[in-house]
Design a protein that fits this description.
Blueprint lengths: L2 H4 L3 H18 L9 H24 L5 H26 L9 H23 L5 H27 L5 H26 L6 H26 L7 H18 L19 H24 L5 H30 L10 H18 L3 E8 L2 H8 L1 H18 L5 E4 L4 E7 L6 H13 L3 E4 L2 E3 L3 E8 L6 H17 L5 E3 L10 H18 L4 H15 L4 H13 L9 H4 L7 H8 L1 H10 L5 H9 L20 H15 L11 H10 L7 H13 L22
Parallel strand pairs: 6-7
Antiparallel strand pairs: 1-3, 1-6, 2-3, 4-5
Length: 697
């Protein structure tokens, strides 16, 4: 037998041997030749559970070890109580209640409760509030039932004080054990086989204790009855849990801060909340209403716990809505909601606020070379490093895929360079581990802007910081570039010149250098013919020229094909309009052009992307560019399809009328085509030119 296989057998052997001893216990005489055989058998089984826990501690070395040590100590005290109890019953025939064993029985509960509480805290990395509230709900119901049917009747019997104290002690201690047991069950964390055995121990102990108190009060308890089997089975379950190889996993922190609110849990909590009024109704129907204050108090507590649970759920949903799942930082939505508030506060007080945008350099290379899990690890580590530098009141967010944004209230043009440089060095100062024996150097480029020096609106600040970020990239990366005031910007010329070059590079990758220019000319003509004014026609023309620049972010292997794309590759393609819009939006005064580029892949029937807009929700210029882009693309040789004839392309445009395209725009376009109103170069197929290299984005 291999060592790995051998490690799986001790708990099975322990259970089998224990079950055989339990059977022998019931078959054996009380004494054999004056030897207290039953006492020895019972106490041996009870003590074996404590020994098994110590063996499991030594064998598997769980971390932390204190919860299991407290549970082992609890079982030792329990075994001592068993020895005293059964010696008194069998050896000395002392059956008085309470006995000398009862203080030891009661003393083992606090140790067990403490061990389970420590286990819960280890398993729950967050607050674990939801699990605690759910456990509290069930514990309150159990406490009410215990009072109505166990504790309350006992207090009305007029028994001696010592009998009442001990009789109350068992259900109270069982309630404490039940509460922490429910917290363990309803909380998050792994549930290996050892966990199930552990719960079996708790269930057996609480069940047998409750029946024991009832039998003692009504005078029906006898040593050696069926309760001994339940107690012994619980002891064996505890020992087997400690000997099971998965006992280490019971203390592993959960990857989620709390257990989800599943339909099963909702149903269980709802049923529990209805027990109190149901009990009151049953009593009323039977004509013996009693303990009304207890039931009313239970209803009030259940109502309060329900409200607290709803409040916690709302709080968790809000936290999830503004928290990035991978990095734990705020989301872009939260950043965009918070920035106007900080600008307004700075405006009222005459202060300042800075925006900083950082982008991971060569992140695509990291993903391509080391895999997406390594890329995720890089983002998580950079997030941790940036978070370590953020002070109270500052807002750090994951702004995009590999971009991070920071709001710095009170930062000025004088202090911002120091802060930004510290952030850059914090990221690049130490290599990031991506595997057990592999580390890589990672850097970031940073762009910044300050209110009111660089702008007075959120869009102004983000646009200028973004423009500075692109300048940092263009200057060689791994550096900080500070935004410039609008009156010092080179208007739109420099930025637009660069974007025109990008459009040409994309054309070279796809279907020749004239494609985007052809779309631009055709878009202006169609816009005018569709009744748009000169301003809108100009927007359509420029959007047509730049509509595909977002494709510079897509790998060539993806651009060269459309069939057989993976889900991740389709996500890259669907993100093209948003990337292009963002590149154009950093040029002052071109917000409308950027929005047309963002929308030109939307469809008239609402099935387009990125936002699923439909009909008139789509800008008129974008509806024009959509038709022109499709027409020019169909007449061009593309990597995945040869050029169509004008007749074939016309049929395709007509087929998309009312689904892909605006019917009115299609009618105008086809009217121009049929009347010869299109330029001659717009009705003949285009041949692909040799591709040139694209710039490294």
């Amino acid at each position: 037998m291999t060592p790995a296989a051998a490690s799986r057998w001790p708990w099975v052997l322990y259970l089998a041997a224990g079950a055989a001893l339990v059977v022998l216990y019931y078959l054996a005489p009380v004494t054999a030749g004056g030897f207290p055989l039953r006492v020895v058998l019972y106490c041996f089984i009870s003590a074996s559970a404590a020994v098994a826990v110590f063996v499991g501690l030594t064998r598997y070395r769980p971390r932390p070890w204190l919860p299991w040590l407290l549970i082992a100590a609890s079982q030792l005290v329990y075994a001592l109580a068993d020895s005293i109890f059964y010696l008194l019953h069998y050896a000395f025939d002392l059956t008085t209640y309470p006995s000398l064993a009862d203080p030891f029985y009661l003393a083992h509960y606090p140790l067990a409760v403490a061990g389970i509480v420590l286990l819960i805290r280890r398993r729950t990395p967050g607050r674990g509030l939801a699990g605690l509230l759910d456990a509290g709900t069930l514990a309150v119901v159990a406490a009410m039932l215990s009072w109505l049917y166990v504790i309350g009747p006992q207090t009305r019997l007029g028994a001696p004080l010592l009998v009442e104290v001990v009789s109350l002690g068992y259900p109270v201690m069982d309630l404490a054990l039940l509460t922490v047991a429910l917290g363990l069950v309803l909380g998050p964390g792994a549930r290996p086989p050892a966990f199930g055995l552990f719960l079996g121990w708790l269930a057996a102990i609480m069940t047998a204790d409750t029946i024991y108190v009832v039998q003692q009060l009504n005078g029906t308890f006898q040593a050696g009855n069926f309760l001994d089997a339940i107690w012994l089975a619980g002891n064996l379950a505890l020992g087997a849990s400690a000997l099971h190889p998965t006992m280490r996993a019971m203390a592993e922190p959960s990857p989620v801060p709390d257990a989800p609110l599943s339909p099963f849990r909702i149903a269980g909590l709802s049923a529990a909340a209805l027990i109190a009024p149901a009990v009151l109704f049953v009593q009323w129907a039977g004509g013996s209403v009693r303990d009304v204050p207890v039931v009313a108090g239970t209803c009030a507590l259940l109502f309060a716990l329900t409200i607290a649970r709803l409040a916690a759920l709302v709080s968790d949903q809000r936290r999830l809505a503004i928290t990035d799942a991978l990095t734990g930082l705020h989301t872009r939505r939260f950043f965009e909601a918070q920035l106007p508030l900080e600008i307004a506060r700075a405006g009222r007080t005459g202060g300042s606020v800075a925006v900083l945008i950082a982008d991971v350099d060569h992140f695509k290379t990291i993903n391509d070379r080391h895999g997406h899990p390594a890329g995720d690890q890089v983002l998580v580590e950079i997030s941790a490093r940036l978070r370590a530098t953020v002070r109270a009141g500052e807002v750090l967010a994951r702004y995009g895929g590999e971009e991070f944004a920071l709001i710095l209230p009170g930062a000025t043009a004088e202090t911002l360079p120091i802060i930004a440089e510290r952030l850059r060095q914090e990221v690049s100062g130490t290599e990031i581990p991506i595997a057990a024996q592999r580390r890589i150097a990672v850097t970031v480029s940073i762009g910044t802007a300050v209110y009111p020096a660089h702008g007075t609106t959120p869009d102004d600040l983000v646009s200028i910081a973004d423009r500075a970020l692109y300048a940092a990239k263009a200057a060689g990366r791994d550096q900080v570039v500070f935004g410039r005031s609008p009156n010092r910007l080179d208007a739109a010329g420099g930025g637009l010149d660069y974007l025109h070059l990008v459009a040409d590079e994309v054309d070279a990758l796809l279907a020749g250098r004239q494609r985007s220019r052809a779309v631009a000319r055709l878009a202006r003509l169609l816009a005018v013919e569709s009744g748009l004014d000169d301003g809108a026609a100009g927007i359509a023309q420029l959007a047509g020229r730049l509509h595909d620049i977002g494709k510079i972010t897509v790998p060539r292997t993806v651009l060269g094909r459309r069939a057989g794309l993976t889900d991740a590759e389709w996500e890259l393609v669907r993100a093209v309009p948003a990337h292009g819009a963002r590149m154009v939006s950093i040029v002052p005064g071109h917000t409308a052009v950027a929005e047309v580029i963002r929308q030109h892949r939307e469809r008239w029937d609402g099935t387009g992307y990125p936002a699923g807009l439909r009909g008139a929700e789509i800008r008129a210029e974008a509806r024009v560019v959509a038709v022109c882009d499709a027409w020019v693309a169909m007449l061009s040789d593309r990597p995945h399809q040869a050029a169509l004839t004008a007749e074939q392309a016309r049929a395709q445009v007509l087929a998309g009328r009312g689904t892909q395209f605006d019917p009115a725009v299609v009618d105008v376009f086809l009217g121009l085509l049929d009347s010869g109103g299109l330029p001659p170069d717009q009705v003949a197929p285009r041949q692909r030119t040799a591709p040139v290299s694209a710039p490294n984005a």
